[in-house]
Amino acid sequence: MKAKLTDGRKWLTGTLSVLAVSYVAAAAWNSFIKPIPKGLAYQGRLHRAETIDMLTDLTYVEDREGKRTKREAQIFQEIYQVIDRAEQFIVLDFFMLGRYGAEGKEYPAIAENLVSRLLAKKEASPDMPIYFITDPLNSGYGSYELPEFSKLKEAGVEVIYTDLDKLRDSIPLYSGLYRLLVQWPDNGGEGWISNPIAGDAPDMTLSSFLTLLNIKANHRKAIITESEAIISSANPHDPDGYNDNMAFRVTGPVLKDLLEAEEAVSLMSGGPVLPRTEPGEERGEYKVQYLTEHEVLKALLQDITATEEGDAIWLAMLYLAEREVINALKSAAKRGVDVRLILDPNKTAFGRNQRGLPNRPVAKELRETGLENLQLRWYNVIDEEFHTKTTLVRMAGKTVISGGSSNFSSRSLDNHNIESNLRIEAPNDSDLVQSLEAYFKRLWNNEDGIFTLDDTAYQSRLTPLERGVYAVQKLLKITTY
User: Fold this and answer.
1) Nearest residue to 58 (alpha-carbon basis) of 419, 394, 390
2) 22, 38, 122, 225: least buried by Cβ within 10 Å?
3) In 3-state terms, what secondary structure has residue 455?
């Protein structure tokens, strides 16, 4: 009897050991080791450009009582014009589309307007290829299809859902379980699990819901034609219609790099080869480079590290959590660089209340440095998010700008999400630099509205429990940012 019990324990111990090793191996491989798909973490050449236009969306209050709100919206108005001006092809890559999440509230009809513009273009030019790359979030990870994409498909637009399974997993604790057991069930049948992204969206199947828990995405926001492109932080998603965002419109040889990087996403997802444009002549006062995923972080750290006493860094960001960036900003301030941050207070995300993570603990950490030249203000959000993701690094000989879809978090910058940014080198007296500096100063100084609040405005609202949650999230990478 004792022998049988001993044998049973050995069998159980052996089985558990095999499972544990398999779990750790699967988590390590899929989260840290697995090669990223060819063409991601893209570092384009530094190209010349004659003009680069900055576009902004802002929602703000005009009085201290908060009774008069104003909306300035440029980004999608210009995207509609880009669609109208296209003559050969259009490539779009947007993280979110549609109205789900509105739940009876009134928002700008961005999704409807974008789809209508694309349908009109297809009707006027039926032979023009239009490609729409998007995140499978818009299909409930296989549980349904958005009506907007159904209309586009019927009109001949090629819709490409990004194959996120090719990416590294962003939550190691879940990755081992998901890869060994969870990813195998079939995604068939009717959905029956309430959609956690939007209460008015269709239900999800179990398989779709378990896929969602990986929390990784094609987070890009871009449109490219044969003659111009816009790289943005804004989604054509109605409930995001009042968010504060920034975009950059570019022309010239850099378009070839944008198309090459987008083609990599298409091909890894079973999509087609994308068209190309003639590169054109390298000329103009600006230098522009297309960077994606981890290459955004590498270039950013190099630019911050290059700053010296008397230089300046402006940062506008939804999420600031990447440790290397935080440390680089602190080091720059210690060297005498004037560092100024405008951050979202992280009150809401996807229309749901949040706990101020990660920005409020980071703000506390930065304030505790005691450095007078490291300053922070909160954007005075109403019901929206300060969704901008832009950095300006002004040095003696040039200004370097980084802007696009990338939050400063490990998910965005460590090859878990698919992201897109433009890195721009510009003369200090150029129109673009003057416009961007005027934007930052307008918000910082509350020149014609109450745009920003003092850095202590939200700090008292972060409880010890919330700080503890933040510490655990950092350690275990269990976050949504």
Assistant:
1) 390
2) 38
3) coil
Tracing tokens 């349908």 back to the chain, one arrives at 119
CB atoms within 10 A of CB 35: 9
Q: Is residue 134 part of a domain?
A: yes
Pair (128, 246) in one structural domain: yes
**Domain check: are 388 and 248 in the same one?**
no
- pLDDT tens, position by position, 315-334: 999 999 999 999 999 999 99
Q: Range of 329's domain?
A: 286-476
Same-domain status, 227 and 145: yes
Query: Is the Cβ–Cβ distance between 364 and 462 less than 8 Å?
Result: yes
| Paired strand residues for 339 | 313, 374
If you ran DSSP here, which 8-state letter would residue 227 be given? S
What is the pTM for the complete model shown? 0.95
CATH of residue 246's domain is 3.30.870.10
End-of-domain residue from the set 221, 237, 268: 268
Q: Of 209, 236, 268, which closes a domain?
A: 268
Neighbours of 397 (CB within 10 A): 7
Q: Within a domain: residue 355?
A: yes
Residue 361 makes CB contacts below 8 A (sequence gap 6+) with 462, 466, 467, 470
Asked if residue 19 is part of any domain, the answer here is no
Q: Are strands 286-291 and 421-426 parallel, antiparallel or unpaired?
A: antiparallel
pLDDT of residue 44 exceeding 80, the answer is yes
Instruction: State both tokens at 88.
Output: 């050969």
Alpha-carbon torsion angle 125, 126, 127, 128, nearest 10: 50
**pLDDT value, residue 305:** 98
d(CA 325, CA 296) in angstroms, rounded, equals: 11
Burial class of residue 430 (count of CB atoms within 10 Å of its CB; 0-12, 13-18, 19+) = middle
| DSSP symbol at 309 | T
Rounded-to-integer distance, Cα 99 and Cα 235, Å: 11
Q: Backbone phi, then psi, for 12, in 5-degree steps? A: -65, -45
- Over the stretch 17-40, which tens digit does the pLDDT of each residue have? 888 888 899 999 999 999 999 999
Q: Are both 177 and 263 inside the same structural domain?
A: yes
| Tally of structural domains, the chain | 2
CA 318 to chain centre: 9
Q: Are strands 374-379 and 338-343 parallel, antiparallel or unpaired?
A: parallel
**In a shared domain, residues 359 and 431:** yes
